[in-house]
Amino acid sequence: MGFLTKLTQKSGLHRLPSGTFTVDPHGNIVSSTVPQWVPEAQVREIGREILAIFKAAAAARLQFSEMKVQYAAFKITAREMRGGAMIFLSPRTSQALAPS
Amino acid sequence: MAAQNKILLLDDDDQMLELYQELLKQLPSQPDVQVCNTGARAIAMLESEPFTLLITDLRMPKMDGLQVLAIVRRKFPQLRIVVLTGVLDEEYRSRAYAQGVEMFWQKPSSVEDIKLFQDCVESMLDRATQAPEGFRGVQNKSLVDLVQLECLSRSSSLLHITRGGLHGKIWIQNGEIIDAATTNMSGEEAFKEILSWKGGNFEILPADPARPRTINNSYQGLLLDTAQALDESKGPPPGAEADAQTAAPNPSGLAALGHFEGVSFVLSIPPDEKAAVEAWSLENSQEVALWARDTHRRLARIGESLHAGELTGATGIGLLENWALRPHAQKGLLCVGFRPAVGADEVEQTMNHVFDKWAS
After folding, report:
1. Number of folded domains that form chain A
2. How far is residue A55 from each of residues A60, B62, B258, measured CA to CA in Å?
3. Which of B47, B48, B51 is nearest to B34 (CA)?
4. What is the ipTM of this complex?
5. Contact list, A73 vs chain B (CB under 8 Å)
6. How far is A26 from chain B (nearest CA, A)?
7. Which end of chain A has fewer surrounding CB within 10 Å, N or C?
């Protein structure tokens, strides 16, 4: 399968984290399975941005409990939990990106 | 014996060229596969000898794939083109198809993908050998011209039109338009809808004589009605009556998006924050627009910090309402509300159609 490795070499790979973390209503990390090489400050910042989105949505009278965010190479799923949030980080595999 | 098919492979990565050359040489028709690593070189090679197929990457330094496509389409209208790229981007895809490419492939990443890619290329070469006659390269003709051409020549055919994820069909029997269909419309309504698309691709497929007739208007009458409807949908001329500060409902434009199954509101947010947003079936459009802009900024920031690639969209699922948000480089943001009965997967699928129509 050496050629399959070659196929994916061109894209210039960045290491993308995979894991789950929860934040309380103040944006503090309560629990996390995100790898340790991801700076804690970055994880906290993601949590705060997500919480801010949930709060602003309520102010705009948009009620939702789950949000899925798609990037070209990454997916975030966030669930609102009594003012806090549970956030799932998952890289999208090249297989998932393949045309159907 | 049929002449050997010739494929020109263009990619700035020499390793990829070597690899794909090997893969394509394994095809049953054993084509002659030549390679080059710059757009300028590709054009020079195409000028010096005839090729059946060009397979090109999109992201290349100096002259990128889209520039190559624009030149090649104009200079070599007979040439079949396949885009093979590492980046799956709807805008790139739409632009490539608008340039008349036959296929848009993401670089295969599994053995199954490679096999599928080889099969598609082989099938394309096979068709090129079997049907060498006919003209190609009419992408600058409007759909109205095309329909008129088919009707005036009293043809019987099925026009298959695609624009991004949108699909439409127009059935023509002995020069008369007998039926039309899109994903969610049929008859005259679908015909008008298809003609409102500003670009895309078409295929002329064999006629379907068994198709029941649902359109009884003459093609001239239909085209006239459609032209009138399109003019009306453009709204009043500048300065006639415009209240740029308020988000007025836009019955001619956004209401059409509201016809999609399950859609509860539509909000079109231009990139310029001072420009008015357009809303359909949404009372607090300004508040939602502010939230959508803010959310887009926050999500883009997260994506940047993670090197996650371009933000392609977001969806929200709730007890009372679901929504989807998609950015567009030129048009800004589209935020669409969905009734709660519409499931998460359905929201994404419908949003694809709504977004393609809005972007068109």
Report:
1. 1
2. 9, 45, 27
3. B51
4. 0.84
5. 307-309
6. 17
7. C
